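During the reporting period the student researcher (J.K.) took over the structure-prediction task from the postdoctoral fellow and processed the backlog of single-chain submissions. One of the processed entries is reproduced below for the supervisory committee.
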Amino acid sequence: MTERTADSEKISYQNKRGIDLLNNPRFNKGTAFTAEEKDQLGLRGLLPPRYIPIEEQLERVHENYGYKRTDLEKFIYLNGLLDRNETLYYRLLVENLEELMPIVYTPTVGLACQKYSRIFRRPRGLCISLKDRGRVDDLLANWPYQDIRIIVVTDGERILGLGDLGLNGMGIPVGKLSLYVAAGGIDPSMTLPVCLDVGTNNEELRNDPLYLGLNCERERGKAYDDLVDEFIHAVKARWPQCIIQFEDFGNTNAFRLLEKYRDAAPVLNDDIQGTGAVTLAGLLGALRITKQSLADQRIVFLGAGEAGIGIAEAIMTGLCDEGLTEEEAKQRFWHVDSKGLVTHARPGELAPHKLMFARDEAAIGTLGGVVEKVHPTVLLGVSGQPGLFNEMVVRTMTRQVERPIIFALSNPTSKAECTAEQAYTWSNGQAIFASGSPFDPVTLNGRFFRPGQGNNAYVFPGLGLGAIISGAKRITSSMFHEAAKALAGAVPDSLLEEVSVYPRQSDIQKVSIDIAIAVARETYKLGLNGVPEPDDLETFIKDWVWKPEYIPYV
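J.K. obtained the following structure tokens:
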């Protein structure tokens, strides 16, 4: 049985007293230390005399948060709170998840990464650079917690839709893991954000005197592979149960590294597999509105990178679940990249990940041309290029099919292929719309539309929780498929009536439990579990999850 032996329960707070205790965000309670605790822990006089419980502390910090004028200021404020009082930070996040998620993650985290070197306050996570080859295990040993169950690692090459941000990409693993904690209930001491600094091809960063990363071009050869390999094996040796999530790697490395390590360790790539699962879930939700099957769809993808291929693979799994063969499933897909329809007839060699879904037909140079010919029922945007779902494209779809399903999934908001208002307006309210970043509700012709946000945060916290609980030795495509089905089933009819195909973000914690149960059961079914299955899985998971509550020290 997997037990939660978090370091907060192993490291005695009694080894920390006075100002050292107050300066440790893991153990600091601020004004919530009782009079008895102040006396015994050497805190008398270091704090105001009045005892303030966490509920009143929450009111104060939420009020102070509201004074911040810009999203970046709010991001910096929240990180400052995390640096002072970890429990209070997560309590605030858990109780206000729908409000705060756009700040701690997409879209604001993109801006925060662009400014990372300039807003840097306190180290968080491990920075492992090319200069550290040969001693990666020593760096892991420097981390203060010894029961790590989930690592999110990036090399900063493809941060959201913003491109190569080098070491500045560290904001992504930090933000991602905060959602593993708040939405998935994983103890923060079990999480570790990592950035592999292998240089950057972003000249603006390299010319910035305040940039904190290596000032060199991005390494792509043997030295890169050796560093990644050393990192993976050092993690496996030190924390055998640890799940490793690859995040925001460039296309070539993302597919290559996932393929290289997926059978050797419990690794996943959220940009490929997580995006696929959350999009499949949204599509299944949309089909609850149209009353159609997945096999009835003709799907056009704008974008043939990590997200586009990952989504296609996830939908293909769903189609095979309905009885189609893989070849029959592929005939439902048309991928469009910067050169037009991806076909075998295209001059030059296609990248391996594109070759899998290339079509045997004449080339079509534009998205509009593909839509005109294919009559798609579903249009999925993962291009990172704003505005490509223009009025002509949306109106053409609406003319061809009764309920066009349009998902503009590129992040951050500024990169979305169209806005919610545009999709509803140009389709005369017929579109079923979802996006990768949040859009406000829209009222059109007296109808209320609540656009769904296909945020991977619906999937990865629950999947990670289920994998940890079951001690998963591998992360399989079927686990993501089970997660997608659980997420689709969590959308209430009331939201479908508002044409929203995802649950409210305030319900993510409950959804994560449902996904964790589904993923853990799939792990046990496949025999990939490292620990026995509990008699009552749901109760065990609910009891296992970490809750942001102060513990009594005396």
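The committee noted the following: The chain is about 45% helix and 10% strand.
J.K. will present the remaining backlog at the next meeting.
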